[in-house]
Design a protein that fits this description.
Layout lengths: L5 E3 L6 E3 L21 E3 L5 H10 L5 E6 L4 E4 L4 H10 L7 E6 L9 E2 L20 H14 L3
Antiparallel strand pairs: 1-2, 3-5, 4-5, 4-6, 6-7
Length: 150
């Protein structure tokens, strides 16, 4: 299957659709990440429900974005940026959002992975995909453990 792509036109900032016959989706808009079944989790969900989210997305992993100010998180998106957008549209602030991956089948000690492109923000002193501030990491772990039954 050929990947969907856009072709440059003239200047670098201008793009047009590849002809329909060259596109795997047959034409139309360039698809963005599918809005799978993203949800904002505000109250504790069962381990079974969370495993179902994993099965519907990546099989053994769930991408999540945690709002450390409001104590909520979004889950079920294809990209952390999709979940980030969902939270921002619902009143969260960018500086409070941190991307993680959760592995429901792993033990409690190793089921949280602090790795996401949305975490790269030098203006907040975080220069990597991980979360460098131990206080923020602890807030994330506390929220995740309050919202997801393990």
């Amino acid at each position: 299957m050929k990947p969907t792509r856009a072709l440059p036109v003239g200047r670098k900032s201008e793009w047009r659709q590849a002809p329909a016959e060259e596109r795997s989706d047959g034409g139309g808009e360039i698809p963005s990440s599918p809005n799978l079944k993203m949800k904002i989790i505000k109250e504790k969900i069962s381990a079974a429900e969370f495993k179902k989210i994993a099965e519907e997305t990546f099989g053994n992993m769930v991408k999540c974005v945690v709002d450390i100010e409001n104590g909520i998180m979004a889950a079920g998106g294809e990209l952390h940026s999709d979940e980030e957008r969902l939270l921002l549209e619902n009143g969260s602030k960018q500086q409070d959002l941190w991307g993680i991956n959760l592995y429901p089948e792993k033990t409690a000690a190793g089921w949280i992975e602090f790795d996401s492109l949305i975490n790269v923000r030098p203006s907040q002193g975080n220069r990597s995909r991980s979360v460098s501030d131990p206080e923020i990491k602890n807030k994330i772990m506390k929220i995740v453990n309050e919202l997801v039954e393990k």
